[in-house]
Fold these 2 entries.
Entry 1:
Amino acid sequence: MSGTLLELRGAIRRYDAGEQEILALRGIDLDICAGEMVALMGVSGSGKSTLMNILGCLDKLSEGTYRIDGQDVAALRADQLALLRRANFGFVFQRYNLLSQLSAVANVEIPAIYAGRDAATRRPHARALLERLGLGERLASRPTQLSGGQQQRVSIARALMNGGRVILADEPTGALDSCTGHEVMDLLLELNRLGHTLIIATHDPAVAAYAHRIVEFADGRIVSDRPAPESRPALAAAEPMPTIAQGEAPSPNESEAAPWARLAEAAHMAVLALLIHRLRTALTLLGVVIGIVSVVTMVALGEAAQRSLADDLKGLTTNTLEIYPGKDWGDPDQLRIQTLVASDVEALRRQSYVKEASPVVAQSTSLRYRSLNGSGSVNGVSGGYFAAVGLPIEQGSTFDRSDIDRKAQVVVIDSNVKLRFFGSTDPLGATIYVGKLPCVVIGVTGHNYQQESRGGSRLNVWVPYTTAGARLLGRSHLDSIVIALRDGEAPQLAEDRLTPLMIKRHRVKDFMVLNLAERIRSGVALFETMSLLLATIGVISLTVGGVGVMNIMLVSVVERSREIGVRVAVGARQSDIRCQFLIESVLVCLIGAALGVALSYAICVVTRYFLPPKWEMWLSPSAVTTAVVTATLTGVIFGYAPARNAARLDPVEALARD
Ligand code: ADP
Ligand code: MG
């Protein structure tokens, strides 16, 4: 026999059980050599399982040292311990601890997955092991479809998967009838003959009798350590166990190869877990779907509103101010105030910040050209009006100084009038009747959004304001003044400077200033507030969905603690466990995102029938991206705490739970 493999010195394990502390191990010295078959025997509660967990690196000593191959395990980090477990130990439990959702082969494969082997190597090896142990017919069976003896043989195959240098069997026959129990013990004996070190914990002397050495336990102490009186001769080992080719055996410097295999395993387990609890998954999904739908439709709605607003702003001249009579909006005296006059315009025009100012008088009127009639509105303005409001002159010209001074009977018509009265013929020089006043057409305007939004297809004509005042309306006060500001002048500042000037001229504030830029800005601000509100609603719904995910994941971790314990025992790293649960929550969220996007698409299609065309909602790539990104983030954020809980679970405790 070779040298000492496992070495315990002064091993003490204490448990804090409320006020009193329990000493499960009270100072144990034990050496186990490679190739031994040792039975740890003692009554229930004597500390056998505690010792097994220590030996298998699932648990740590409170005091004393434990060396494997001369290496002190106390100094090792969690991942190094996981590596040690993978490389050296195979666990066989009293209650088999197979994962019920996996087939026999898949159960046997698990340790190799965490050792980073690819499917092409591990799958045939798992099959070969099961066939060698007489389960060739039951490869695809679930644990529940197997007898106790068969399940225990599957778990032995699992213990051998990574080599099984040391096999730790804690009451391996405890749940079996005596006949099956002896079969299992024969198998373990055979493994010992093939070179595996075996440590078996049992309370049953008949089981202990298989071993070559019996270490008897009582109350956390070794009371005797002797060779078995008549150890059973092992049956002649007929066939060796299948082994993985030398070069592929797990080595301490096992590379982090095949992380994809571990990821794929995690994803596979996540899908299985979701499928097992379909109703629960569906309800969790519902929360996420609602969240995603609100986020996506909010984004789509926001974009639609933005498009519509951009439409409204198009062509709008924002660098203008308009002055109207009246103390404020809705002043009942507005119509009686007659103080807005042409000299105000002259005064304003002299201000440094004013580029152009024009008086405006307006009235509805009848229009006539030869035998054609129409009704529209006539506006008295100055020549600068058109430039001030951004109305292009497409043909001819506007009024000049002398037209204003002479109260000339000239008119500028808009494209609607041109279309109605002149069709495709040239209107310049023709005479039309504005009310009863004959005027010569000198110009035609083009389109302008502001004009359109105020009148659509109405007929508009413009005459000099002096002409309108004297010859059409018989008054000299104005309806409003339009001011175009110089480029770069801030409308608000201009308004602040213009107001005192006008008050000084009128001695009272009997006018009001329409600052269109300000209006638009407050409109945009309102819209931005709305968008923010909508986005907040989306985020809140998604948060609620995320909390649902977290809730379910926390429950799931508790429910599956035994599974987690098994995985850790066969060598899973903490990161493997964390990854598995994170993938599960991200998967739920991504499925939710896919359903949510589909539902949002349906909503967009349906709303097209109800909303005005310019509010039409589209699922833009940005909305879909938002959905996927927020879903992933939700999964990670709300899955993080449960996944961390799972990874931090104490494997001994986890295995002890039901
Ligand atoms: P055996 O496997 O020989 O039946 P155990 O190793 O399971 O014995 O337990 C040894 C002693 O340690 C028992 O008295 C038991 O109550 C105690 N013990 C085991 N696990 C815990 C624990 N997690 N917390 C408190 N006491 C424990
Ligand atoms: Mg026990």
Entry 2:
Amino acid sequence: MRQHISTATLAQISATVGTPTYVYHAPTFVRQFQQLTQAFSGFQHTIFYACKALTNINIIKLLYSAGANIDCSSINEAKLALHAGCHPSRVLYTSNGISFQEITEAVELGVHVNIDSLNNLKKFGEKFGASRPIGIRLRPNIMAGGNLKISTGHDKSKFGIPVTQLPEILAIAHQYQLNITTLHVHTGSEIKDVQVTVKALEILLDLLPQFPDVKHIDLGGGFKVPYSPTDGETNLQELGNALAQTLETYSSKGFPTPKLWFEPGKYMVSEAGYLLTQVAVMKQTDTICFASVNSGLNHLIRPMFYDAYHHISNISNPSGPKKTYTIVGNICETDTFASDRELPEIQEGDLLLFHNAGAYGFEMASNFNSRFKPAEVLVFEDETFAMIRRADVWDDLLRNQIAVL
Ligand code: LLP
């Protein structure tokens, strides 16, 4: 796996900021965005970075100034995007399971909202009628994505309004003369098969004649990135060509071509991020050699939560003899990062680097076991770096506790 930041810089970060620390490579974020833009250059499109993957305001700013719009999944993410300086017209809130009050708040912030329930659609009609454009999140009943936990478009999923409820959607739209400008689907994360996205587009194109105001088809995110040296990835060029072809076939029948929207999270930020840790203690048992790092599932939950593979490098001893280790954390739960992993010989104090930690790494971190959340550091093209979030300190653990006894 490619290491975008030199070992010397990582060692310097360890010495000055400490470990564990999330470390991000600025040029890689921008490169990922540009690769998407390039792959989709055959049709009109807008990329909304799904900032749920990594909400540090510096990363939002970096991608926004590179040209990406921002997709949010909570009112606070929408507020963070605006705080980072994004114009509301370039911010999208794809909601799920929220109260109408939160939708009202988002509308009042001026951001575009995709609604995902009939009840909220009706309430939107009652309050706003045709006065504000709106998007509808549909559930296409397609099974897609790397595993069930990250599959969102299937027929048992909570997300979106099932396409089978189209008559109800149309009745509400008609009753309140809604100005529905976007149809949205997001079928899952880590979708390698380009045909899944093409199918989603076809389903929405088929619906378009019934939604005369729709200008954008939002296909969500979910592009697969490789987590291991043998892992596959979405072939974006193939996807771009297939989507262009589908749009062309559609418009050749005389229909106006909608603009496509995308909401990639992982693709934009996964590869740019690393979790830099240090080996706290080695433990040789009768069958297993454990290397325990000064981090745990409280900082990177993906291996335990999704059985996700994260590539690990021993940057302190890259050319040492290979041995087999189980890499664990220090949390009082089983928090195995990797089992039976071959790595160059590890000693206490070595720096272990977890790759592909940019997406849903820091963002899913917690203070479990009352441990501190780590710092975040942004490394620039010339390998200078800046801390963009300090690690927690003792006061952070007590900040919101109210002593009543
Ligand atoms: N749009 C919507 C409406 C979403 O729900 C998501 C992700 C995305 C876009 C971005 O998907 P991406 O391009 O990042 O795959 N924590 C899990 C991934 C959960 C994704 C949730 N929704 C993980 O670490 O694998």
